[in-house]
Each structure stands twice: as structure tokens, then as C-alpha cells.
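Teaching note: in complex prediction, the entire set of molecules is handled at once rather than each chain in isolation. The prompt given to students was simply: 'Predict the structure of this complex.' The entities are:
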Amino acid sequence: MDSLDPSPVDADAVLLAAYAAGDGAAARALLDRLAPRLLAMVTRMLGDRAEAEDVTQEAMLRLWRRAPEWRAGEARVSTWVTRVALNLATDRLRRRRTLGLDDAFAPGTEPADGRASVETELRRAERAAALRAALADLPERQAQAVALRHLEGLSNPQIADVMGIGVEAVESLTARGRRGLKTRLDGQRARLALEDGDD
Amino acid sequence: MTERETEAGQGRGTTPGEGTAAAEDTRLDLAFAAARAEASDTAPLSASFADRLLADAHAAQPRHASAVQRSVAEAVGQVQVGALEAQGPELSAARPAAPLPFASWLRALQTMLRGPRPVWPVAAGLAGCALAGVWIGYAPPASLQGMTDLVRAEIGIPGRFGAEATDELLLAFDLGGLDG
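The expected output is the structure of the full assembly:
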């Protein structure tokens, strides 16, 4: 995520200050810089575009409301709003726990024979759904660390920044999260198209 | 938040029939790849969604940001504007505007005088009042001075207060008389 790159000046903070001072164009510029990445991140976590838009909208709304009291230097705007979106997405993910892995792979979602491309797409969707269900079942901090590391591709220092913890804690959370996911996915292996070389 | 451990399954990789740790890693990586494939690094905003976000931004924008907030924001913008310009024209164009107070006042005056409905009478009235105020302050009319002396004599202020305090009191009285 480029916006999390450490650069000497937080351009987003400058734009946020301009927005708070009444500059309408600054809001548009901030949206262009932040919202597409937030939306992509939340879409990957939730797998539902409409829900991801709701989360992105809520995160941005919290940023607008925070603008008048924003104090430059406390945190980078992109980091702060990513953390907000991550927490909101995790909350939604965990509310889905009642769905469970069994429902994610209910009969009727199996691909039909002879339709390779459709089958591939279905399997991919199943895997993504299985992952999200397993993520929802993980402890919250583990789920967040794993999502940032393996879905967003952030480095450990970047994750530490977003989550407000140390790098060692990130490593620990990520490792435990992976183990937890493997445990959960392993239980569903018989019904999941997760075998090696499926693609 | 309570971190509940989920390590009960540790060592499962070595259990017969449940696959190796490497195979589990592969399966997990496939699942991650599948989830990543559902959205690119950035998801373009639809026009309607962008409009919703902008509407939120405008609704939440402080309408009456205090002068202090504005000056702080402008100061931040001025300090960092050099670095912004180094990051590209998009950002430097969107930097916070920091107009000088006098320049804004002058612009407002120009707008008022050159507008579609000239407001010369109002401007002339304001200018006349300002000149009158300056003149009265510099050379008070005899009638006002007389009123001040009259009050001074009536209430006998010099006997109870110093001359300077009396003048301050009567100055307020004179100004009150001007107000009507």
C-alpha cells in the first residue's frame, strides 16, 4: 500500500488540514488518494462489494469528522484510516460467524463438470469464502495481522504501524493466525477445492 | 480484547491422513491468492459511490472553522507546501489556500463595488460614518463638551474621584450621548 510508505511529509495530513479549513477540493483529492485502496482492502476481506463500500464510507466519514481535531505528527492519515477500516471490516467479518464454513460450501456450490473456466472461478470463490470464514473465527488481532500481511501484502513494520503494536508482536500474531487458519481449513479440506495443483 | 489461543491443532501436520505442513501451507496460500484475486490493489470508485463519499465530506465539513483553526491549517500548508510541490502538481494544486487578510478584504470590496447591483450608496454611507467618527474624536463639537461639563458639575465627581477617573466616566457618557 503506497500510501503507507514513510515519506517526510504526510501529504494527506496537509489535505486534511485544508479540508478542515473549508477547502472542498481537498476532500476530493483525499478521496482519490485514500478511498480506492481502502475499498480494495475491505473488498478482499469481506468479498462483498456493497458491504465494502459501506465500510469505506464509514471509515471516510470518521476521518471527515476527525479533521478539525487532527493533530499532525500523531499518526499518518492513511495509517489511521486504514486502521479504522480494518476494525470495521473485522467487526463485520466476525458478525458473519454464524454463517460458518459449512454454509460457505453448502451443496449447490459445487462446480459442474465440463466447464473448466467456470469451475476455476467457482473454486476460487469457494477458497476465498473459506478463508474469510476461517478469518472470522480467529481472534480479532490475529485476523487483522494475517489479513494485512497476506491479503494486503504489507510489511511487518507497516502492519505494526497500522495496528499500533511492535514488529515482534506482529510476527507472533501472524504466525499464530496462520496456524489457526490452517487448523480451520484442514477440517474442511475434504469438501474444499484446496488441493495442490488445482489451478 | 481477549486473545483466545487456537493452538489446539498444533502438530496436526504430522498426524497421518491430515497432510504435511507444507501441503497445509500450500492450501492456505491458495486461499489467500483466491481472496487477493477478488480485488486489485486499488478498486476504482463508481460515480455514485464517489458522490456519496463527497456528499458525506461536504456535510461533515466544518462550516464555521474558527480563525485559530484556519490559521493553523494555513500555517501547516505554508510550511509543507514546498514538499507538496515536490510530490506533483496534483497535490500542489490542492494545497490549502492561504490568502492574506487584507487581500481578502480588498477582494470583497471589489466584488461589492463591481457587482451586478452596485452598492455605492452603502459604501458612501460607511465611508461618511468613518470620517465623522475620526473627526469627532479629533475635535469634539462644543455641544458635546458642554454636556460633559454639565454632568461633571451636577454630580460633583471631582470631590470623590481623581480627574483621570472622572474623564473616563464622562467619556463613556459622551459616547452614550452620541449613540442617542
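Point out the following to students. The two ends of chain A are 27 Å apart (CA to CA). DSSP finds nine helices and no strands in chain A.
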